[in-house]
Amino acid sequence: MLAVPFDTLKPARSLESAGFPTQQAGDMAEGIAEALTELATKVDLAALRNEIAADIAASRADAKADIAGCGTKLGQTTRHYARTWRCCAGT
After folding, report:
1. Does the pLDDT of residue 1 top 60, yes or no?
2. Sorting pLDDT into bands at 50, 70 and 90, what band is 25?
3. How confident is the model at residue 13 (pLDDT cuts 50, 70, 90)?
4. What is the mean pLDDT of residues 55-83?
5. Burial class (CB in 10 A: 0-12, 13-18, 19+), 12
6. CA distance linking residue 64 with residue 61, whole number of Å
7. Against a cut of 0.70, is the pTM above it?
8. What is the CA radius of gyration of the chain?
9. What CA–CA distance (Å, rounded) separates 22 from 15?
10. Conformation bin of residue 19: beta by default, left when phi > 0, alpha when psi is -120 to 50
């Protein structure tokens, strides 16, 4: 995340002129400055979007492979039971 430069003196003075005590105005301005350092940028969001897209693609590929494996196992099981049924029915 990109640190956004924030001048705490200007909002602190505005808060003081609005009637806030000096200490409270300064603390509020510092809190705002700290919160702004936690903001995600467009680049951060784009990187996250790409990471999520890659995770989804990998999950989709895994699911397709799992489904293909189930189809193979189902076919083998069906053939086994068909042979067993033919063997038993012929007796």
Report:
1. no
2. very high
3. very high
4. 85
5. buried
6. 5
7. no
8. 32
9. 8
10. left
Q: Give me 88's structure tokens.
A: 């038993």
3-class state of residue 91 by DSSP: coil
> Are residues 41 and 4 in contact, defined by beta-carbon separation less than 8 angstroms?
no
- Higher-scoring residue by pLDDT: 63, 2: 63
Residues 32 and 12: beta-carbon distance below 8 Å: no
Contact 64, 43 (CB under 8 A): no
Q: Which two tokens stand for residue 26?
A: 């300064």
Side chain identity, residue 68:
A
Burial 42-57, CB ≥16 within 10 A → b, else e: eeeeeeeeeeeeeeee
For 69, the token pair is 């494996």
What is the DSSP code string of 20-47? --HHHHHHHHHHHHHHHTTPPPHHHHHH
